[in-house]
Specification:
3 strands
């Protein structure tokens, strides 16, 4: 394979596998899944609550009593909904150091193990949050709503994360070279071949 064969427009290829230069090539509004839109809405609500808290506290010298607690819970929601979005986009951080030195078959096995551990973790988290939701009988301190709502939202996000993790794992099994972890090894081969 010559150097010109490896450089194909904006994509690089090794053994017939295309690696896009920009992994976020689908940044249009059509590619955003429902959990992405939910994340945007919750994040906007968080921004509005924090701005209202700041404005009422410092501009009007009359703080809103419930805003700090609601902002804290919205931040929890943003975190867990963001986890689902990151799994759906397969964009969680990972340590790529070892993947540069292991052969591709071992990288594929490691990817499968990581996918299975991630699915098991989110199933376990569903079980834990369902248990905690049953224990949380008291109301929130500044709003007359039960605290179990927070745990049920985390339960829903964990179930969605387990579902999205299963889809990502199935995609990695069907297309072994699609994993970012295996692509790290392919990119390392490209740089070695070009040098």
């Amino acid at each position: 394979m010559t150097k010109s064969d490896k450089q194909q427009g904006s994509d690089r290829a090794v053994e017939g596998v295309q690696i896009p230069e920009n992994p976020d090539h689908e940044n249009d509004l059509k590619s955003i899944k429902p959990e992405g839109w939910l994340l945007v809405l919750v994040f906007l609500a968080l921004g509005l609550v924090v701005f209202a808290q700041f404005f009422f506290r410092y501009a009007l010298n009359s703080p809103i009593g419930w805003s700090e607690e609601v902002a804290r819970y919205l931040l929890i929601f943003v975190t867990f909904i963001g986890t689902v979005v990151a799994i759906q986009r397969n964009s969680h951080i990972f340590v790529e150091y070892f993947y540069r030195f292991v052969p591709k078959p071992i990288g594929r096995v490691m990817t499968t193990i990581i996918d299975l551990v991630r699915i098991c973790f989110f199933i376990w988290l569903c079980w834990q949050t369902k248990f905690l939701a049953g224990l949380a009988m008291q109301n929130m301190s500044s709003i007359p709503l039960p605290k179990s709502i927070i745990y049920w939202v985390v339960f829903g996000c964990s179930a969605a994360a387990a579902f999205r993790s299963t889809i990502v794992a199935w995609h990695h099994i069907r297309n072994p070279d699609s994993s970012r972890l295996v692509q790290v090894r392919i990119e390392a081969e490209l740089t070695e071949d070009v040098s």
